[in-house]
User: Fold this.
Amino acid sequence: MEKDLRERLEKIKRLSLDPFHPEALRVELESLIKDLPNMTPEELMDVREFLQDLKARLEENYTICFGWMEKALKEGFRREV
Assistant:
């Protein structure tokens, strides 16, 4: 894998670890998507594997950010003292 691509994927991985600041991650992913047509088949396979791992991480981020809201809506809002 090309060094530049590896660095980009590492940056995306770091950004994906912060569920409360998704904007920077979105910008990097859009940049990566724009470069897909210029990648070699080997690089595309590496990106595909990376994105499959990233999907699981993003689903976990969703649960962290919005899971409490879903739970509150299902169970109702209760104030605990």
The helical segments are 3-16, 22-35, 41-75. The chain has one domain: 3-75.
